[in-house]
Amino acid sequence: MSTPSPDPAVPASGAVPGADLGADPHADSAAVSSEASSEASSAVAEPACVAWPDPARRAAFEAWLAPVAARHGLLPRSLRAASADASFRRYLRIDAASGGSFVVMDAPPPTEDVRPFLAVRERLQAAGLQVPAVPECDLPQGFLLMQDLGDRLLLDELARSEAASDAAATHDRMLEAIDTLVHLQSRCPAQGLASYDDAMLDRELELFPQWCVQRDRGIEWSARQQEQWGQAKARLIESARAQATVFVHRDFMPRNLMLPPQGGLAILDFQDAVSGPITYDLASLLRDAFISWDEEREIDWAVRYWERARKAGLPVDDDFGELWRRLEWMGLQRHLKVLGIFCRLQHRDGKPRYRADLPRFFAYAHKVAARYNGLGPLAALLEQAAGTERRAGFTF
């Protein structure tokens, strides 16, 4: 999983909500264009909402922005924070003189590298998928000017339809996401991407004992518990590696899908894409970090994915039951990783807001571990970490 953004209302990459892509019909374009030219030639003022802890980084940004603003008719004094990120990236919004706005990615090296984002973006665009355009980029300094795709996150649309008890609208939006996933898997090549191999799967799983069990909960496993953990890890890795390999987004969830004005779904936060197990992105979509579904709906949507995937010629299991088992085990791997990441964000990075979602992921993980033969000891480890003893109808 790529690291999530701290505010569920704001996407992690690409487009950031809160701007209209269209021109403002009431604007005096001549006056605004003159203002843009004047501002572009002046120093970039720092609004109160845009902080630059590093003066050298601010100076580099201003030097980069001045000619970019002149070329694109941007209004530097409109610069404002759009979102932060769980990584060291952040996003700023800037208005255009002709109306609408752009998004600036500030990805300071050496902690961030924008090249994977750009390379995967080109791959997705070539496959006919909607991704933000990048009219300007400075690779060495990590500054990107990007298209602003609007303010309609799929996550927000789903939350609204659920709040309105509009199950049909929720269903239609989820099917749209499933169709986008099938398009992604069937048309976007995985060749050349990093492999989601045994070593990567193992590193991700180890985040759970390191950051959640030991650092966050203060639990030291016995030799027997460590052995049980090792056996569970081996089973999960074996299941993942036995699956067909496709392009894997790694965070294909409603928060990283947008509904742009031109229709369809746009994809965000794709820089960590790999070549990996076919059920990974479906598990991310159905068992999300910020919204949960009852199992009946999960299975219904999984069946619809399975039918569409088979029709598209994707290498899914002939037996839906086996695909569902693989999906559950793949989701378990992801959820254990997320438990570790969320605890690491608090203890290492000083970002405690993710703690609120720990119970959701404990519940996801325990439900699967308690269901399948061979994973019972893992269920007990999860119960210990969650601080809840085993009982009938186990909940967190």
Brief digest:
By secondary structure, the chain is α+β, with helices and mostly antiparallel strands. Helix content is 47%, strand content 11%. Strand 2 and strand 3 form a beta hairpin.
What this model shows, in words?
The protein has 396 residues and is of the alpha+beta class. It has 2 domains: 29-147, Phosphorylase Kinase, domain 1 (2-Layer Sandwich); 154-386, Aminoglycoside 3'-phosphotransferase, Chain: A, domain 2 (Alpha-Beta Complex). It is 47% helix and 11% strand. It has helices spanning 29-40, 55-72, 115-126, 154-163, 167-187, 198-205, 207-216, 223-241, 280-286, 295-311, 320-347, 358-369, 376-386, and strands at 74-84, 90-96, 101-106, 136-138, 143-147, 245-248, 257-258, 266-267, 274-277. It has a 5-stranded antiparallel sheet. The chain has a two-stranded antiparallel ribbon with strand order 6-9. Strands 7-8 form a two-stranded antiparallel ribbon. α12 (358-369) runs antiparallel to α13 (376-386). The longest helix has 28 residues, at 320-347. The radius of gyration is 22 Å and the shape is globular.
CATH class of the largest domain: Alpha Beta
Distance between the termini: 23 Å
Taking the sheet with the most strands, its summary is: 5 strands, antiparallel
Q: What's the architecture of the largest domain, going by CATH? A: Alpha-Beta Complex
Described by the principal axes of the CA atoms, the overall outline is globular
Order of helices and strands: HHEEEHEEHHHHHEEEEHHHHH
- What's the total count of β strands? 9
Total domain modules: 2
CATH H-level superfamily of the largest domain: Aminoglycoside phosphotransferase (APH), C-terminal lobe
On the 0-100 scale, what is the average pLDDT? 87
According to CATH, the fold-level topology of the largest domain is Aminoglycoside 3'-phosphotransferase, Chain: A, domain 2
Gyration radius, in Å: 22 Å
H/I helix tally = 13
Helix residue percentage: 40-55%
Label the structural class.
alpha+beta
Strand content: 5-15%
Spans of at least 5 consecutive residues whose pLDDT stays below 50 are: 1-48, 391-396
Placed side by side, the strands forming the largest sheet appear as 1-2-3-5-4
